[in-house]
C-alpha cells in the first residue's frame, strides 16, 4: 500500500463521520465511508485516518467528560459498523501473503484497535483470522494448532491485562509462532512489551503491517514467565493479587471510618468507590508483576485527569494510598510503588 491520503484529504471525511457518529446516524456513517472511497481516498486511509481518527476522538471526549459511557459505547458500535461497510465495499485482489491471527488478550474488551489492524492487514493482502475481544489463551493456542498462522498479533488497551498478555504471548511462542503486540497497555513506546518477551511491538496499524511484511524473528524456546521476570520469585505479585479483594474491602472500611464524607456515602457511591479501589489495587499488582513503578504512576496520572474532568480533586486518592501502604508494609516492593504514586499525585496538584 502507498502512504495513503494526506491529512488534508482525510480530515473533511473524518469531520463528516464524527457528525454522523455523534448523531448516531448509521446510514450517514455508511455514506461517509462510501463517499470517501468514491472520491479517491484509498481504503487504508479511510480505515485509519477517518474511522480510526474518529474513534480516537471518541476516547478523548469521554475522558474529558463530554461523552457519557453510553454515548461512548454507541459511538464505538457505529464505528465498528463503518469498518464493516468499508470491508464489504473494498475487497483486495491478488494472491494472499500468508495467514495472521489477530486477537485481544483475555479480559480485554476494547476490540476496535485490533479490528482496525485486522482490516489493515487484509487490505495489504494477508489472510486474517480475527478473533475479537477477550480471547481466552487456551482458545488462542487451539486456533494456532488448527490453522497454523505465520504470526500472532495481540492487542490490549488496559495495562491491568499485561499479566494475561504475558501468559498469552508465552503460550503462542511455545506453539512456535512469533508474537507482535500493540495497544496502550504496552506503553506509548513499547516499554512494557520488551520485558514480557514479545517478538515485536508496533505503535500503530501501519507500522505493524510494515513489520509483518519484513518478517518477525523466530520466537524463543518454551520457557516459564519467571525467566522473563525473575523478580516474580519474591511472590509479592502472587500474594497481593490473591489478596486483592481483602485489600479493597479493608481500604474502603478505613476510608469510611476516617473520613466522614465517605461514611455518609449512599450504596451507589460506595459501589463506585469500591470499583475505583479495585482498579487502584489492580494497577498496583500489575506494577509489581513488571517491577515498574512508572506503570502505577501513569495509571494514577490518568485517573487524576479523569477525576479532575469530573470535578473531583485528584488528591482525593491520597487517603486510599495511605491505607493501602499500611496493609502492605511487610512487603519490600509494594510500599515503594505506592510511595512513587503518592509523590506523583502531589506533584500533579
Q: Biggest sheet, strands in spatial order?
A: 2-1-3-4-5
Low-confidence stretches: 1-5
- Tell me the strand percentage band: 5-15%
Helix content: 55-70%
Task: Name the average pLDDT.
Answer: 93
Strand element count: 5
The largest sheet, given as strand count, sense and whether it forms a barrel, is: 5 strands, parallel
Assign the structural class, choosing from mainly alpha, mainly beta, alpha/beta, alpha+beta, or little secondary structure: alpha/beta
Amino- and carboxy-terminal Cα gap: 46 Å
Elements, N to C (H/E): HHHHEHEHEHEEHHHHHHHHH
Features:
349 residues, alpha/beta, five-stranded parallel β-sheet, 61% helix, 7% strand, disordered N terminus
Provide an overview of this structure.
The chain has 349 residues and is an alpha/beta fold. 61% of the residues lie in helices and 7% in strands. The chain contains 16 helices and five strands. The protein has a five-stranded parallel beta sheet, with helices on both faces. Helix 3 packs antiparallel against helix 4 and helix 3 packs antiparallel against helix 5. The N terminus is likely disordered.
Give a brief outline of the structure.
The protein is 61% helix and 7% strand. With 349 residues, the chain is α/β, with parallel strands linked by helices.
Amino acid at each position: 500500500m502507498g502512504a495513503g491520503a494526506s491529512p488534508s484529504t482525510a480530515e473533511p471525511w473524518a469531520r463528516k463521520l464524527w457528525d454522523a457518529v455523534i448523531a448516531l446516524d448509521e446510514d450517514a456513517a455508511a455514506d461517509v465511508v462510501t463517499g470517501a472511497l468514491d472520491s479517491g481516498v484509498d481504503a487504508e486511509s479511510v480505515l485509519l485516518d477517518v474511522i480510526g481518527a474518529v474513534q480516537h476522538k471518541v476516547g478523548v471526549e469521554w475522558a474529558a467528560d463530554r461523552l457519557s459511557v453510553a454515548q461512548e459505547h454507541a459511538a464505538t458500535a457505529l464505528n465498528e459498523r463503518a469498518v464493516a461497510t468499508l470491508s464489504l465495499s473494498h475487497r483486495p485482489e491478488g494472491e494472499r501473503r500468508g495467514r495472521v491471527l489477530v486477537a485481544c488478550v483475555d479480559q480485554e474488551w476494547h476490540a476496535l484497535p485490533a479490528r482496525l489492524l485486522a482490516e489493515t492487514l487484509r487490505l495489504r493482502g494477508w489472510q486474517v483470522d480475527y478473533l475479537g475481544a477477550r480471547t481466552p489463551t487456551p482458545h488462542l493456542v487451539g486456533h494456532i494448532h488448527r490453522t497454523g498462522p505465520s504470526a500472532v498479533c495481540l492487542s490490549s488497551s488496559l495495562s491491568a491485562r499485561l499479566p494475561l498478555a504475558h501468559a498469552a504471548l508465552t503460550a503462542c511462542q511455545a506453539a512456535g509462532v512469533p508474537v507482535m503486540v500493540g495497544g496502550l497497555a504496552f506503553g506509548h513506546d513499547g516499554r512494557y512489551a520488551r520485558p514480557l518477551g514479545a517478538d515485536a511491538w508496533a505503535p500503530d496499524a501501519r507500522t505493524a503491517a510494515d513489520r509483518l511484511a519484513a518478517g518477525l524473528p523466530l520466537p524463543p524456546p518454551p520457557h516459564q514467565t519467571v525467566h522473563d521476570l525473575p523478580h516474580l520469585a519474591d511472590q509479592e505479585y502472587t500474594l497481593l493479587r490473591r489478596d486483592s479483594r481483602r485489600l479493597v474491602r479493608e481500604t474502603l472500611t478505613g476510608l469510611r471510618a476516617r473520613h466522614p464524607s465517605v461514611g455518609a456515602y449512599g450504596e451507589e457511591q460506595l459501589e463506585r468507590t469500591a470499583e475505583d479501589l479495585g482498579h487502584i489495587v489492580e494497577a498496583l499488582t500489575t506494577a509489581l508483576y513488571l517491577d515498574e513503578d512508572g506503570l502505577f504512576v501513569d495509571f494514577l496520572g490518568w485517573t487524576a485527569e479523569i477525576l479532575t474532568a469530573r470535578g473531583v480533586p485528584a488528591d482525593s486518592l491520597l487517603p486510599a494510598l495511605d491505607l493501602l501502604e499500611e496493609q502492605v508494609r511487610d512487603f519490600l516492593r509494594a510500599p515503594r510503588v505506592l510511595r512513587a504514586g503518592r509523590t506523583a499525585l502531589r506533584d500533579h496538584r
